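Field: COMPLEX_INPUT
Field: COMPONENT_COUNT = two
Field: RESIDUE_TOTAL = 225
Field: MODE = joint
Values follow.
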Amino acid sequence: GENVEQHPSTLSVQEGDSAVIKCTYSDSASNYFPWYKQELGKGPQLIIDIRSNVGEKKDQRIAVTLNKTAKHFSLHITETQPEDSAVYFCAASTNQAGTALIFGKGTTLSVSS
Amino acid sequence: DTEVTQTPKHLVMGMTNKKSLKCEQHMGHRAMYWYKQKAKKPPELMFVYSYEKLSINESVPSRFSPECPNSSLLNLHLHALQPEDSALYLCASSQDSWQPQHFGDGTRLSIL
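Field: COMPLEX_OUTPUT
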């Protein structure tokens, strides 16, 4: 079955710096890769996703890149702000009916001002 | 605010109690999910309902019993739970079972 590895497990940056979180997946059939942000006491919030027919997707300060050959995808956050502090999860799925999202173990991002 | 509403937000119950968790969405989504999340861990899938029919049961113990009364509602009935079942229970929905999933804020369950 699918296995998703996520690194680093913790990441501390100064406000205004960039943050990069990386994930690798094992199942070449996976074709859908969402990223979730989870703040304390809240459920995971979908912040960006990418499908395997696209190499990069950007939404304001957040971007995701996908390398299908190497089976890895990354989340890039630019101009970080204290409110970006949260746990970030990557996930992978074959995106077919009856299949599940497989999550990475999560990255705790701390942005200090 | 999330568009997936879960009640109650917190629940404390004894091992012999019976309780239910409720999840509601009014986005017209046809797939709904239950996840269990332990502290500092990712969500783990428990059940998937697609068009009000159970499509995935990830070998969950029978003390957890899901129910989908209609396309907007999802319940999780709890009976004879164990202390290790204490966790955050998350509900999610998606337009279809291969579309992006949107989560509620969960029910924090504590088993005494």
